User: Fold these one by one.
Assistant:
Number 1:
Amino acid sequence: MDQLGLLLNGFAVALDPWNVALMLIGIVLGVVIGVLPGLGGANGVAILLPLTFSLPPVSAIILLSCIYWGALFGGAITSILFNIPGEPWSVATTFDGYPMAQQGRAAEALTAAFTSSFVGAFFAIVMITFVAPLVAGFALRFGPPEFFAVMFLAFASFIGMGSGSPLKTLMVTMAGFLLACVGLDSVTGSLRLTFGSTELIRGFDFLVAVIGLFGIGEILTSIEEGLAFRGAQARIDLSAVRRTWAELPRYWALSLRSALIGCWMGVTPAGATPASFMSYGVARRLAKPGEAPFGKGRIEGVIAPETAAHAAGTSALLPMLALGVPGSPTAAVLLGGLMMWGLQPGPMLFVEQADFVWGLIASMYLGNLVGLALVLFAVPWFAAILRVPFAVIAALILVICSIGAYTVNNAWFDVVVMLCFGVLGYAMKKLDYPLAPLVLALVLGNRTEQAFRQSMLSSQGDLGVFFSNWLVGSIMAVGLVLLFWPLISRVRGAISVQVARRRG
Amino acid sequence: MRRFQGISQRTAELTLAALFAAVAALAIGDSLRIGSGWGEDGPRSGYFPFWVGAVLLVAALWQLVSALGVRPRESFATREELVRVASVLVPAAVQVALMPFLGLYLTSAMLVAWFMARIGGFSWLVAVASGIVTAIVAFVVFEIWFLVALPKGPIEDLLGF
């Protein structure tokens, strides 16, 4: 039980008073960010990242990851009370959460949502505690071809398993890789894709892209819909909490299933949003006939998506820590943070930076516990944020976004780039282009290219290196199947139609 | 002249696909310039972007062709929606454009005041006061707390910062 000893050390790091204070600040900020439409986990973390340079890395990651947990909790508040998902992963929570609030069962819905979020997260953290070191240990044997294969697998699963058009996912992934190429090539020292601009030598920073795509883009989509907040009142008293908690153990099978779906979707880079929809869909399909229909205020309709979303959001950190391949946009931003603080992401992290890794994992246990207590008792105050007029919120978010983009490199040019990404993000969102693969490709672009180059160097340009042993070969093979899955399933569909026709 | 009705789904799809194709073409061109082949010491700088650009170009052209099939009647954004988007985007762009001359704090105060008065329906007095408060809070938090230097303009010069 190596892990438990290391975990205890981690608790010693995380329980440092300064780190506990940062944890609280992070959770509160995170919930605020989660409640506000237009400020999400990914860009909230991106905006604050440049401010964490003066902190030791472990304190910085505790602050930023707690913002992430807070945002995961916060998204549920607006979904249930206002029917406005504060975060994309809480869309599925609105289906049954808002009807519950309308029937005067807001406290019950919120308690169920927060508790199941906590259960999902806890499940995922336990998994991370025991599985991540194994994965990292295994990955120590990886060479450049294996790393390239893992990245390939990550992007292929986006394309093959994503909910949107595979073609559009492919396009944004490639665009992300190209954006990552801009600037000075660190291997040969030549300038790429700068077209003579001195500003572009720095390249496109993923933080600027995240703030633009997610922050500005989100505001533009919100204002287009002409947002007006009109919500149910809510205060959670202890008796409602006790009543709901007494009821929750009945749904253990649902919680377990949702947590498993969430963990699976989080580790593969599908992310929290599809996990919440899938979990909700499965729960609805498995409902017994004769019961009240979903969508009219069933508590299961809140438990399923919330458990899965939080489990997915949390377990997205597993591949980030163990392999250096993040499972969600927010995890990608955190990974970018690691690199900026001078840590080398990847399996060596568990060996060289044990304090950092276990401090983070311990803070995940504590942060989610603190988060649960905090949101249960502070819901009215967080909900009050949405009573601030949208004009004020939008202006403040715009100001915060431009400060965030500026502080990345102290460059005005980045603020301009952020605004352009904002318009692009708005158009992409309206046309169902996925944003997450672009961010992931931008963050991972250089490391993917490096792994590719080193593999090519060792094999003298022979692509066969990616199939040279069973390990890299099988990762690549799974990646290829996922990549061409949309085509395969279409062909299979066409064949079965043919067969059916012939029989009929 | 026909009144502008908004942008159709088809136009938007075509424009974005064309944009991606153009980016791909630029990347391919630049990669060819710096060398996209195999150098003495391994793949040259343009090798990776060239192939990424090639995949993007094919995908974007494919998307462009399939976007031709989108029915032109479907709407991407109506005129009213675009007006609302512009009501946020234009002031934000003006703020960013003025930032190098007036600094971040003054332009932020102006942005907050403008939003509150024009979109939020507050009186100008309240709006301007809120703008100034925002700028002061931002100044204290960033400049003094976090020691982050943000762009400053003539007013901050006058005050001696």
Number 2:
Amino acid sequence: MKEELFVSGRNIPNIDPYLNIWHWEIPLYLFLGGLAAGLIFFAAYFVVRGKEKEMPATVKWAPMIAPIALIVGLSALFLDLSHKLYFWQLYTTIRFSSPMSWGAWTLLLITPLSMIWVASYMRDMFPKWDWKFKFLYKFEAWVISVRKPFAWVMMILALILGVYTGILLSAFNARPLWNTSILGPLFLVSGFSTGLAAAIWMSKDKNERKVLSRIDLIFIGVELFLIIHLFMGFMAGTAVATEAAALFLGGQFTISFWVFVVLLGLIFPATLETIELWGYHVPKWMPPALILFGGLMFRFVMVEAGQITRFLY
Amino acid sequence: MNKQISSNQERYLNPYLGGVLLGLLVILTVYITGRGLGASGAIKSAVVTTSNIIAPYETQQNGYMGRFVSDDHSPMYNWLVFESLGVLLGGLLSGLLFGRVKKFRIDKGPKITNKKRLIFAVIGGILFGFGSQFGRGCTSGAALSGSATFALGGVIAMFAIFGSGYLFAYFFRKLWI
């Protein structure tokens, strides 16, 4: 190991007193990662349950967004790196104690696998599609024959990906807003909810949308529950944590969080989904668009606010 | 609630019940915020903010708009802006519950074109914007909240708005019937 000498007069630009290194790239990446995790999880889930026919948009069409989201997200992540040429070094080791190692390996697997998932449904979606080469047809037939185990693998990877987008932040012990174990499940639930929203938006089948909306309502409920507990935890914590929570309870992020994330991004779309389930006509793009907006906003707020929170001195 | 709403008969709340609810809302607003509600203030904030982005010097020099610009916070940091956001959401919810939200369309009288309807709507909006700022408030800010506190100005504003509405309706009836 290389020794590093660190002398500080507390003049560390962009790190002390406030972290100022993560801009739009990271929240966008966390959002797209969560979205892809949600899309893949539910596509796989309905295959495992044997509901491929009833849920065509969730299983076949919506997952087409997943590889695109992953590639755009990873490009944003790559843009953020200071030493772009050394990113491959993540793949020279496996460290179970490092969320970044988990994420790097999961992404290495799930990105190509999500492409294979979409490819295996290509001829279902576009009957005129031609793979050109014989070995591709053979490969397709093999993937279709192992679809259920494949779906299980995808479900597990999607869970890891979803949790990782939150754990990535919560592993920062110097930033009190992020350093809470609720962040992992919270980002997982939020990511799954955005994935469901994208599937609802793409679905043309009334029954499918109904099933997805019901699941989405549960996820929104759980998300609200976790958000409340996040703040209860902060308020019952040390002065550092209370100060972090104060940013959201009267501080500069109060409006962006409670109005735009919680009200517009969770409670209002949940209300719309509920009245839609009751039989009222709601424009079908409206609840999913609000949920996706709320999910994106949530990550921007969390990344931005987290960088400002710090230990007292 | 009746979910089978026929396509051409749109449904609204009983106007008398709506009026009572609006009155109760004013009481609630005063109880919660310590002041009445308003709508034109939100539009004013939006106008000042836009103007301040495009031409900051002129806006700050302007005797009227300059009063709303401060270094501490944006003019949008005003509870009326968020109240208006809530009005939009509430209106949407009411429209959904009563089956008024359908395909995008322009409501108008049967004898005029969409273009004419939009032009007159913009002219009406501009006049109302002027009027609300001269009258220190609109139907909700001056007339509703004002008369709720028995302010003479509020009562005058109420009669002026609806009285002149009755008077001018005759001349513009062709736009609607």
